């Protein structure tokens, strides 16, 4: 029996959950596609670099979905100039492919992510563009046909447009009243804003009994400990121990799905920063087996909004995105801002979507 009752801070668990949910879905149909296999490998490299960059400017928990970000940025690539295309393409760690091959690949990924059932990743994407901006027909068609996205013209300086963006975000994340953007978010130089939304829904194959949930300590850092609701179950899980990382891995499968959530627990109660320094090694194959495990996991609810254009510029897109890139006075398409909102709520039954208010 393995005792996993020392819970790690949410940050590493959250990040790892997102990566495995996304990659696991792609793997379900990528068995015979060399292009998709290359994309998965690139997704892992991109995830590591994005995590490191976002972590620099974040104090506390954060929630990101690198796959979803790759997808909406790949859509925007279709409208970019050749010079900007190369910078963005390289940063995204995309495999070399023709435009038609890339479109087909993302059509498959979107279809797989969009499967209905007990477990799913629900998403919505929209590119808001300045009125009068030149948008190529290929970008318009691909947005709908290959990425299940939309492009909408707005006046970024109008208060009604700010309200429209926030209202769309709230309606698609069941989080009415959210203020993702304000009247200070944009300027006359703003050409286009990419918005990506995600929430995760899934039921554990084996639920945590509600009668076992009770308050307990959660060690945020050496100086901060919080009382949280701790769930507990004693059953068989896929479990691995990595001696080099001095960390335990446990997979929680989701019902009616190939998706699973992986929790990574350092041996040291405050060992999360050490694991984060070796984030790339968390993607290495672990040697799992199936013992009975007494597993204690905190219930948590994270709703996070991230503006990612600074991180992307630091990763290699400098000069390709942002207000000071390109010629702000022309009408050519260019990415100015990139936003992502993600929600995950973990409880005894699984990962639940947020409840819609007012109904």
From TrEMBL:
Domain of life of the native organism: Eukaryota
A GO CC term attached to the entry: extracellular space
GO molecular function terms attached to this record: serine-type endopeptidase inhibitor activity
Alphabetical UniProt keywords: Protease inhibitor, Serine protease inhibitor
InterPro entries in alphabetical order: Serpin_dom, Serpin_fam, Serpin_sf, Serpin_sf_1, Serpin_sf_2
Keyword Nucleotide-binding: no
Keyword tRNA-binding tagged: no
Residue intervals of the Serpin domain: 48-359
Coiled coil residues, start to end: none
Family affiliation: Belongs to the serpin family.
PANTHER family found in the cross-reference section: GH10112P-RELATED, SERINE PROTEASE INHIBITOR, SERPIN
Protein name, per record: Serpin domain-containing protein
Organism: Photinus pyralis
Organism placement in taxonomy: Eukaryota, Metazoa, Ecdysozoa, Arthropoda, Hexapoda
């Amino acid at each position: 029996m393995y005792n996993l009752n020392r819970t790690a801070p949410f940050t590493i668990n959250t990040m790892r959950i997102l990566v495995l949910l996304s990659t696991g879905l792609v793997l379900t149909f990528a068995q015979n596609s060399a292009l998709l296999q290359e994309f998965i490998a690139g997704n892992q490299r991109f995830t590591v670099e994005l995590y490191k960059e976002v972590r620099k400017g974040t104090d506390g928990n954060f929630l990101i979905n690198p796959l979803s970000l790759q997808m909406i940025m790949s859509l925007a690539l279709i409208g970019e100039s050749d010079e900007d295309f190369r910078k963005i393409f390289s940063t995204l760690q995309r495999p070399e492919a023709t435009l038609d091959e890339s479109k087909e690949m993302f059509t498959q990924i979107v279809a797989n992510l969009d499967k209905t059932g007990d477990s799913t990743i629900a998403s919505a994407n929209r590119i808001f563009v300045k009125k009068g901006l030149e948008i190529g027909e290929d970008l318009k068609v691909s947005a709908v046909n290959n990425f299940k996205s939309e492009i909408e013209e707005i006046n970024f300086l109008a208060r009604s447009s700010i309200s429209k963006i926030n209202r769309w975000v709230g309606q698609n994340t069941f989080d009415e009243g959210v203020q993702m953007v304000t009247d200070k978010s944009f300027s006359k130089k703003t050409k286009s804003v990419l918005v990506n939304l995600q929430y995760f829904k899934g039921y554990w194959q084996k639920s945590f009994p509600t009668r076992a949930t009770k308050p307990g300590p959660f060690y945020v850092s050496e100086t901060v400990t919080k009382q949280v609701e701790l769930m507990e179950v004693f059953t068989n899980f896929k479990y691995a121990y990595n001696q080099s990382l001095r960390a335990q891995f446990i997979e929680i499968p989701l019902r009616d799905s190939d998706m699973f959530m992986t929790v990574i627990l350092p041996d040291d109660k405050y060992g999360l920063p050490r694991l984060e320094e070796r984030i790339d090694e968390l993607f290495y194959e672990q040697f799992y087996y199936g013992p009975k495990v007494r597993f204690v996991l905190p219930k948590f609810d994270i709703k996070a909004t991230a503006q990612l254009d600074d991180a992307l510029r630091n990763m290699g897109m400098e000069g390709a995105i942002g207000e000071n890139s390109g010629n702000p006075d022309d009408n050519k398409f260019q990415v100015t801002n990139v936003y992502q909102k993600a929600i995950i709520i973990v409880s005894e039954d699984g990962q639940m979507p947020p409840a819609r208010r007012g109904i």
